[in-house]
């Protein structure tokens, strides 16, 4: 069950390679807003986005985020930033909900 209210869950689903998550997307000019939930143990392999400047906030749980080789843990209430072109990977050790803002560059 998703953490997000029905209105958010009625948004289009963001398709991706991670099947242990739910991601609902809201699009605006030059920005996508992603409401995501991840199950414990979910890993996202190293990758990069050359066309997005990503800012995110953890709503519940925690994210272990490695950006360009530097690893940090972000907990509920923490904001993080993934610059365009930065190689990054993510680990979710517990149920986690987050909101990401993907600004087009």
Summarize the structure.
Helices cover 4% and strands 58% of the residues.
Task: Provide key terms for this protein.
9 strands, four-stranded antiparallel beta sheet, mainly beta, 4% helix, single chain, 58% strand, five-stranded antiparallel beta sheet, Jelly Rolls, 105 residues
Blueprint (SSEs and pairs):
Elements: H1 6-9, E1 21-28, E2 31-38, E3 42-47, E4 52-60, E5 62-67, E6 70-75, E7 79-82, E8 88-92, E9 96-104
Antiparallel strand pairs: 1-2, 2-9, 3-8, 4-7, 4-9, 5-6, 5-8
Characterise the protein shown here.
This protein is mostly beta strands and about 100 residues long. It has one domain: Jelly Rolls (Sandwich), CATH 2.60.120. About 5% of the residues lie in helices and about 60% in strands. It contains 1 helix and 9 strands, in the order αβββββββββ. A 5-stranded antiparallel β-sheet has the order 1-2-9-4-7, with no helix packed on it. Strands 3-8-5-6 form a 4-stranded antiparallel β-sheet, with no helix packed on it. A hairpin with a 2-residue loop joins strand 1 and strand 2. The longest helix is centred in the N-terminal third of the chain and has 4 residues. About 15% of the residues are buried.
């Amino acid at each position: 069950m998703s953490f997000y209210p029905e209105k958010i869950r009625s948004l289009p689903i963001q398709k991706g390679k991670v099947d242990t998550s739910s991601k609902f997307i809201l699009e605006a000019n030059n920005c996508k807003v992603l409401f995501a939930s991840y199950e414990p143990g979910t890993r996202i392999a190293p990758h990069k986005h050359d066309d997005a400047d990503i800012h995110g906030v953890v709503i519940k749980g925690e994210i272990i985020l490695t950006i360009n080789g530097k690893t940090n843990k972000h907990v509920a209430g923490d904001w993080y930033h993934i610059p365009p072109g930065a190689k990054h990977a993510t680990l979710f050790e517990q149920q986690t909900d987050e909101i990401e803002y993907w600004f087009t560059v």
